[in-house]
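Something for you to look into today, if you have time. What I am after is a single protein written out in full by you. I want to see for myself how the chain folds. Could you add the entry underneath, on a fresh line?
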Amino acid sequence: MMNHSLKSRCRVAPGTVITGKWHSNKYTILKELGYGANGIVYLAKFKNTQVALKMSDNGMSITSEVNVLRSFAKVQGSTLGPSLLDVDDWKSNQGQISFYAMEYIQGPDLLTFIQNTGKAWTTVLFLQLLNDLNKLHENGWVFGDLKPENLIVTGPTPRIRCIDVGGTTLKGRAIKEFTEFYDRGYWGLGTRKADPAYDLFAVAMIMINTAYPKRFNKTTGGISQLREAIRKQKELLPLERVIVKALQGQYSNALHMRTELLTLVIDKKTPESHTKAAVTNTNTNTNSTMQKQKINQAGTQQPKSRQNYRRKKKKSRWMETIIITIFLALLYLLYIFQKLL
């Protein structure tokens, strides 16, 4: 929590005009959006645009967060965090206060969105989140304080974004900020060292949180309590394998977790695939000896087999893309239909 003296120094009333010392940009404070360990975030007006403005008398903290946002900007295709707009200092009656202005991301937080629109979009949003986290990790950062309150769903096509980068930490360092429920150290399932698995643990806990909006208290802790919580909710059972693996740190990267989650979604949509796979495996085992003999007898068949494999793999990727596109289109139509009611 933020200490009271810091909050008092950074507290300003709506209507206050913040003028940058170096860039002379003027921001009119509209309301407070929230506060954390290192500052207060306000909704402000800059010219004809609404922005989020974070103030702190901890210059080092501001510099660190600005560096994170600048790193986000270098990650092509990632929209996880807000865009950085300005960095400056303000001479207030309480002394000099550092601030930065960033894109104001509008929309409900993740749990509110799910509550209002239903859970049809939940898996899609987690797939988006894991994709963005993978890009963040590849650039040397770990998000750290990942929780539903920091995740905003924008529209009209639902897209998950993050509004707080205060806990983002360079890989290998100690996590700067965390919230107990989403922290693997709190549950006795790992350290607070910044690595991709730390974020993936938090993603798994957010998945659990969707079925327990009010969370739950730690009792015995460890994987046993969390696995029991998963098994008490029918909606979590199809995702149990992915959630438990993430809780136990078994994913080397976010892309690996995303791939397995996507596979579960596709299998859930096409339950007959398990039967087909079983038949295929049986036929493969029965005919494996004959196939090997044929390949040995005609060495020229091996290149053709490799070409066929590549064709099938390419076709499989296309099918996956088509399935995801259809799935997203149906969800979007459902979302628009609900809005019209």
